[in-house]
Design a protein that fits this description.
Blueprint: H1 6-22, H2 27-63, H3 76-101, H4 103-122, H5 124-133
Helix pairs in contact: 1-2, 3-4
Length: about 140
């Protein structure tokens, strides 16, 4: 159901015209009828999306991949983006580490940067997040 659904718009126009014809004493019944039609339309849309999502999951299972999970290594764009952001942030973090603690601060800073990138490269964070996102409904 799109924001400008012509069927719902025509239903609303018909409801408003009927209200003008019958008067305000039937307003509550007209509104309830219109809202029921909107609810039915939304339920139909939800059912369609749910069926599509289940079919996609079944296809993934048939292919032998985990439904809803990306590969442990992630996409090239994701890895490149993470590495680029990591390197850009490394410059000011290195400066802060050197100014405050000298060589020890620089080593700790770069140890943290390497550690974060290593965790990202192993996919450990994504696997834990995927496990956390699973609910009792899955």
């Amino acid at each position: 159901m799109s924001a400008r659904d012509p069927e719902i718009k025509s239903e609303l126009d018909a409801t408003l015209q009927t209200r003008r014809d019958l008067g305000p004493e039937y307003e509550e019944e007209l509104i309830e009828g219109f809202l029921e039609k909107v609810q039915q339309r939304m339920d139909g849309t939800f059912d369609t999306r749910l069926r599509r999502q289940l079919a996609e999951q079944q296809m993934q299972v048939a292919r032998g991949t985990q439904p809803g999970a990306s590969s442990p290594e992630g996409t090239f764009g994701e890895r490149f983006g993470f590495a680029a952001v990591s390197m850009v942030l490394a410059i000011p973090l290195s400066a802060i580490g050197v100014v405050n603690e000298g060589l020890a601060g620089l080593l700790v800073t770069w140890g943290g940067i390497v550690g974060v990138n290593a965790v990202h490269a192993t996919g450990l964070f994504r696997r834990r997040r995927a496990e956390k996102d699973k609910s009792d409904w899955d």
